[in-house]
Amino acid sequence: MEMKKRITEELRGKKPSEVAELLLDSCVCADGELDGLTDDFSSLEVLSVCNTGLKSLSRLPSLPKLKRLELSDNSLVSGLDVLSVKCPSLSYLNLSGNSIKDMSALQGLQKLPGLQSLDLDEDEEDEESWREKVFELLPQILFLNGFDQDHNQAPDDDDDDEAGPHGDDDDDDEEDEDEDEGSEDEEVGLSYLMKEGIQDEEDDGDYVEEEDEEDGEGGVKGEKRKRDADEDDDDEDE
């Protein structure tokens, strides 16, 4: 697909000034130049133009808010100095898979003070010396191909996001434990009360039965006394 047409599709009805991320990977560059990308993309922060046959950045528009630029697997050789003019806020640049062999081609990146991370094809014959030269040429960068000067790996972009939820999960776990403990206490208390209630009912039943028995015995004795009295009255009459 042609780059210009792809840009139109990526807009999805939005205005160029409303777009913050634009992915144009594997589309076709006309004559190796950027086509369809204009200064109207003033809010663009992420631009990916990988594997498009790009040969030149001469038609790169002004993208003042661009922070991340993916240019891997193209045919760039030089002309990187335009980035400091067109993309002054750039912090990450991926140039791996291009044809940049001369260290002097990177000099244009010296004017990007905010550039912190750079991906670039290594010199396999002298990798360690090559890394030292790049860090020396571009002292502002912190990570080269994902590692700092001491070969410590760069942190993932999602690390900070993960830390928050994990912390929240711990708090949630503690709350859940407290709730579980509370539930158990309530269940124990409820069971105790139920048992006490049942026992009280049983005790009350026993008490009522005993009273009933006593009342029954008393009634029998009363009737016996009444009969005895009546018999005595009859004897006296005779």
Automatic annotation (TrEMBL):
PANTHER family referenced in this protein's UniProt entry, alphabetically: ACIDIC LEUCINE-RICH NUCLEAR PHOSPHOPROTEIN 32, ACIDIC LEUCINE-RICH NUCLEAR PHOSPHOPROTEIN 32 FAMILY MEMBER E
Annotated compartments: Cytoplasm; Nucleus
Name recorded for this polypeptide: Acidic leucine-rich nuclear phosphoprotein 32 family member
Basic and acidic residues bias (residue ranges): 218-229
Pfam families reported for this sequence: LRR_8
Chain residue ranges for the region called Disordered: 147-238
Organism annotation: Knipowitschia caucasica
Family: Belongs to the ANP32 family.
General function of this protein: Multifunctional protein that is involved in the regulation of many processes.
GO function term, MF aspect, one: histone binding
Acidic residues biased stretches: 155-188, 199-217
